[in-house]
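Students often ask what a 'structure token' actually looks like in practice. Rather than answer in the abstract, let us consider EF-hand domain-containing protein, a protein of 91 residues. Its sequence is given first.
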Amino acid sequence: MAIFAYGKVNGMLTKHDLTPAAQHVCGVELSDRVVEVIFHVFDTNEDGNLSSEEFLRAVQRRENNIHQPTMRRSVGWLNSKRCSWLPQMIL
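Now compare that with the structural description of the same chain:
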């Protein structure tokens, strides 16, 4: 959950926070379009902030929808070796 430490307000990430957080924690650069897609998928209450709870709920919904663990599939930038926080979040 290290990426959420970059949220400036109550540990929540804004679109502005996400790009540098992903760069620092995962070593990847996110385009503005990718950030828009991430927020479209994960920001369920549409408040412009991404909480760890919203992220976890979205990952759990995805796992339930495909009936297999998300971690066994390639998840693009989330599959980065430097993103060691993701497996801990799902467990």
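One point worth highlighting: The chain has four helices and no strands. Ask yourself how you might have guessed this from the sequence alone, and why that guess would often be unreliable.
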